Amino acid sequence: MFGMGFSEILIIAVIAILFLGPDKLPSTMVEIAKFFRSFKNAVGSVKQTIEDEMQVSEIKQEALAYKKQLLDAGETLEKATDVKGAINTGLASLEDDIALDETPKKAPQQPQEVTFKKKNKKKDIDDV
Asked: Is the pTM value of this prediction over 0.85?
């Protein structure tokens, strides 16, 4: 007990008997026992409080994780049920398509006249 052997406990008991005397020794032992009991209870309550606080922090972390999941699910649901946004997006793409269709197009080329007449070739000066 407390890292003491039997001989150390016996020496302490003899010294206590000599200083306190046989009449005060029992009451003093009871007071020492009460002190150790109250000390043990205090340590136990501190330990329990620390464990409770650790459990509360774990519960807080779990609650925050659930809150994040709920917010993500709410955003997903909002995107899925956002009819106005879908209509606006569709209208914007339609407007873009219409704008592309209205861009000026090149006038169609006039068909060339096809004839079977021979064309006169001009002679170059170098050929002469």
From this structure: no
